[in-house]
Amino acid sequence: MNLIDNAKHQGKRKKLILALRSMGIESEQVLQAMLKVPRHYFLDSSFEDFAYQNKAFPIGTEQTISHPYTVAFQSEVLNINKGDKVLEIGTGSGYQTAVLFHLGAQVYSIERQHILYNKSKRLLAEMRVKCYLHYGDGYNGLPDKAPFNKIIVTAGAPSIPEVLFNQLSVGGSMIIPLGEKEQIMTLLIKTTEKTYKKFEFDNYNERHFQFVPMLKNKR
Ligand code: SAH
Q: What is the value of pTM for the model shown?
């Protein structure tokens, strides 16, 4: 792999961070973490010039890397503390995984597309991003590694996946785009083993971001 992060890339990344700030992202930790992660490593080299625009791009197998704003927003809302055990559903390109790692999280991430799982595994190892990657169905979570302080779902789910909720520790939170055709970005804060508080981000939804669906039983 030929990982080069030159002054031009770094300059574009700084501009992207300014753009995210102007779009309302306030967490310095999140902005600093995103400044550290070269997003162009996660895209095919033919898209390299677009890596620092606020856009989603194809990463193979009909999937897309999340918008930088989505990554920033989901990371900010989760309020990651150093050492938090975080479960990500939908590793995809691995970009969000790398951002979570730079926020100091212990990251566990699941991907159901084998090609993407392999690609991300190689890239993240090369970048020395320490994380636990799992090939499988995110609807099952990772029972052996549970409970998690935070769960981030990066694909749109029709309803709250109960198995994932059960793998969240009390006091923990889950950020998940919920809905069949269109999704509403939703934060769940687990208050007891059986109950949660729910916050929906309407403003976020007005930006009309769409998610690839969270699909069941690939294997
Ligand atoms: N965080 C990723 C987002 C990729 S898009 C990035 O920034 O690159 C969402 C990803 O979720 C896709 O890679 C898709 O294959 C994956 N996905 C969809 N349903 C899934 C499931 N049930 N389990 C695990 N991964 C799933």
A: 0.95
